[in-house]
# Entry
Amino acid sequence: MRPSKRKALRGAPLGDLLERIEHAKARIRAKVEHPFHVVKNLFRHRKTRYRGLAKNTAQLFSLFGFANLVLARRWLLDANTQGAS
# Structure
């Protein structure tokens, strides 16, 4: 829903429900789109080279695996430093 439509429904009970739904959708969208941002911008995977379906799939699986490690880096480093005090 567009933000202007949500602002128009702000006082209504249905408006509060729609606001919570849109907030939940935005949270999910942010978690899903962040790995794509890492793959495209950090690993520079912008153009697809058609080398065969199996090779493209394997490359994307490895890139998204590395993206998961990049995104979990802070959590992994914090877990290692807490036990060494």
User: Anything to note?
Assistant: Residues 3-82 form one domain. Residues 13-42 form the longest helix (30 residues).
